[in-house]
Amino acid sequence: MGLRIKFNLAILAAFVLGFLATAFLLNRNFVAAARQEVIAKARVMLSEADAVRGYTVKQVEPVTGAERAGKFIVVSVPSFAAQFTFHGLSNDFPGYAYKEAALNPTNPADRATDWEADIINAFRQGATRHEIVTDRETPMGATLTLARPLTVNEGACLECHSNASAAPTAMLASYGSANGFGWKLHETIGAQIISLPLSVPLRQARHSLFLFLAMLTVVFLLMLGIMNVLLHYLVIRPMARITRIATDVSLGNMAAEQFRVDGGDEVATLAAAFNRMRHSLEAALDMLEEPASVP
Q: Nearest Cα to 53, choosing from 144, 159, 157?
């Protein structure tokens, strides 16, 4: 196996190991960065939902009230206002969803599904948990879900949800008396759940990873080509020439060309040592060819 092949195999093996390690680490970092970007967006959207809820409580509800002319004013409910505001988002951004899920909601549309109920129960069991982030597969692909607990922190909530007898008549007429009652102060009754698609950020992360690895491969091939050219002109060709001259000299051809290499690198040092050896050999042969002196 020639020197060039050994050199290229060693460099290629080092590149493959480095390439695989780089791909693994970068993929993990790019995916983590994409996930953190989605989480940051989800937190902003939850803050916007809280702002809508706060606006409804402070500005809308005092003006409209919960009941007027025997009709329940649904726009005065913070939960409805926040969810209705974000409902139109899914039309422009498929996969984006916001829901205030509850185990015992007034509006049946807010009833938690199985996976949403698991999140709510996790909040109920861990009072110190203020946020849960999960990944799940949906028909839209990979989806990230961020949830925060909905807790009854104000007694005003119990005016409508403690028991059916205390609830506004209009609310009972709209939703009945079977659901949305029995809430207790400081009880976690549901969760704000926002879902955002992960497929687009992950696709962008994979594209960035592919682009980086492609650039890395191009740089490696360029460097390998340059190193092979240098290897050929600085090592292999001088070594082949000195080998040819050494073969000629070993066969007795003292008229073989001289090997000249300028510079102070290892090949030039080898050439100088070879030339000294050649001159010593020629001197020794000349001494053997001289006639012996007669006493």
A: 157
The token duo for 271 is: 């050439």
Domain count, the chain: 2
Q: How many CA atoms does the CB half-sphere of 92 hold within 13 Å?
A: 5
Task: Please give the DSSP secondary-structure letter assigned to residue 179.
Answer: S
Q: Which pLDDT score, from 0 to 100, does residue 79 have?
A: 86
- For the cut 90, the answer to whether the pLDDT of residue 247 exceeds it is no
- Is this model's pTM higher than 0.85 or not? no
| pLDDT-based confidence at residue 62 (cuts at 50, 70, 90) | confident
Q: Are 246 and 253 in contact (CB under 8 A)?
A: no
Structure tokens at 39: 């989480």
CA distances (Å), 270 to each of 3, 230, 233, 252, 276, in order?
17, 18, 15, 21, 10
Has residue 202 been placed in a domain? no
Range(s) of the domain holding residue 218: 207-289
Among residues 179, 197, 215, the one where a domain terminates is 197
SS3 (DSSP) at 111:
strand
Measured in Å, how far apart are the chain's first and last C-alpha atoms?
58
78-92, 107-121, 134-148: which has the minimum mean pLDDT? Answer: 78-92
- Give pLDDT, residue 291: 62
Helical axes 3-55 vs 199-231, angle rounded to 10°? 160
CATH number at residue 243: 1.10.8.500
List, in order, residues 6 or more apart from 160 with CB less than 8 Å away.
66, 106, 166, 167, 168, 171, 180
Please give the pLDDT value at position 27: 93
Identify the CA nearest to 238 among candidates 206, 269, 271: 271
- Tokens matching residue 264: 């102070």
